[in-house]
Amino acid sequence: MKKDRCKSRISLSAVMTCVVVGLVLTVLGSVLFFFIDFYQSSMEQNAAITSEQAVVQVMNTVEDYTEGMADSMRLISVHMGTPREERDEFFRSFMEIRSDVVAVTTYNEEGELLDCWSDGLKRKSTILQNLSYMEEPKGKGLCISKPHAETLFEEYYPWVVTICQNMRDASGQELKVFMDIRFSNIARYVDDVGIGQHGYCYIQDTEGNLIYHPQQQLIYSGLKEEMTGELESLPDGSHTRTNVIYTIHTLENCNWRVVGVSYVDELITGRVEGMIRVCVALLLLVLLTAVLVGMLFSWMFAKPAKRLTGAMEAFEQEAENFQFAAVRGTSEISALSDSFGHMVVRIQELMEQVRQEEITLRKTELNALQAQINPHFLYNTLDSIAWMCEEDRTKEAVEMVNALARLFRISISKGHELITLEREVEHAKSYLKIQNYRYKNQFTYAFDVEEGCLSYLCNKITLQPIIENAIYHGIDRMVDEGFIEIRIREEETAVRITVTDNGVGMTREQCQEILHREAKDRTGIGIKNVNDRIRIYFGEEYGLRITSEPDEGTCVEIRIPKLKQ
């Protein structure tokens, strides 16, 4: 039902607006998609070229610097074969000229430090760890170590790289010569290189080990990572990974590789955002046009249909008092309006017919229930009088007949269904008096009634079937004396009547069975009918509720509204 309502709420103006906007969005979206794709490809190529230029520039600078290192090592190799005094003089001059060289050291084949030349630095007496020493230089050519702290001198720990080469001294002894060069010049130059706003360059070796990174502290602290392992296997050139362009070049004179990192987004974001702003403005203009077109259609076609829909909803909410005013518009709308008007009149006539039939049916049900109770009660009472006559208790039988006459006079009540609680209590007292003759000294009873409740109305013959059930099915089976108490109390919105006995009691299932037992069952017919009559007349919130425990007794609670007329 809800789905059908949702479908009926779709207006013609909304459909037309959605169609126009959908077509425009589809066309512009497709054009925008292909344009952005083409534009992004162009910008990626430009980014790759920019990154390539920056990396080549860094590579040339680092290559020139390493070539200078190689020249220095060749010069040292030449003077390493000179006499001791001439060699020492060379190194003093060399250290003064090359301020970037921290130290030159030599080692024998066992790794024992032989000589150390520096520019006036004091060497440690005990070197715990020599970071500048490499066990076995690779090959006989130039070998450059990773950047590390110089640990040979007291209170001086510059960041250096070590150049290593095998040489021979004047005596022909095989030596390992190490030259420690400050890495700050290369680092400063690499730090100054930027590709875009956030791009940068760094150096790694051919084995994937990081040589220098401008964000080295973040790398060592684990806050940043570089994919050095994957880049190790890539050839020189530009490689795109997701949104990052990696440009790689390997130095010719050593095993270092310069890697440039640039980001595609920062190179194209500004222009793409400008283009998007233009497209958004165009879309807003199209949407405004579509809304105006939709409003025009609404005024011409949809407005009469909405009025007719509103009339249908109003009829659904309150059909009985609905007055339909014809809706005029196109020929289709006028035809629908006339058909709906005829339908409203016919439905209201049928509703009135059903209402009258329900009233008649309700009266018939009440009369049937009343007729069902009276023979049942009369049968039991006459049975008691016959028993007294058989026992020659004529005087008591006469009193019972008089009580029965009073009881039936109240039961008839001139044909009224509702009587006051005062007369209903009198009716119950007459019935108890009749039953007390039969069950002499077997039970007693008491009434506890608030005076203010006597003027309220209730269904006639409400208490008698409940008292009858308490006597026949509760007290009659007892050995000890029984007791029945009738209490009537006024509550905030209702009157509560309770009939309590100390009989044999019932289970919870038996209590429910009594209230739902069909009319063909003789036992308990009266209680079910009392409950049905109260609910038919006053509503489902009123009626009977039974609580009982085996061997303890039963309590029947009756709730009726507070009515005086």
Description:
- This protein is α+β, with helices and mostly antiparallel strands and 565 residues long.
- It is 52% helix and 20% strand.
- It has 13 helices and 18 strands.
- Strands 1, 2, 3, 4, 5 and 6 form a 6-stranded antiparallel beta sheet that branches. The protein has a 5-stranded antiparallel beta sheet with strand order 8-7-11-10-9. It has a 5-stranded mixed beta sheet with strand order 13-15-16-18-17.
- The longest helix is centred in the first third of the chain and has 69 residues, at 12-80.
- The chain is elongated and about 165 Å long.
- It starts with a helix and ends with a strand.
List the main descriptive attributes of the protein structure presented here.
565 residues, alpha+beta, 6-stranded antiparallel sheet, 5-stranded antiparallel sheet, 52% helix
Question: How many extended strands?
Answer: 18
Mean pLDDT, rounded to whole units? 79
Q: How many helices does DSSP assign?
A: 13
Give the N-to-C terminal Cα separation.
43 Å
Largest sheet: 6 strands, antiparallel
Helix content: 40-55%
Report the C-alpha radius of gyration, rounded.
Answer: 56 Å
Strand pairing plus helix content: what structural class? alpha+beta
Uncertain stretches: 1-8, 519-524
- Percentage of residues in DSSP E strands: 15-25%
So what's the overall shape? elongated
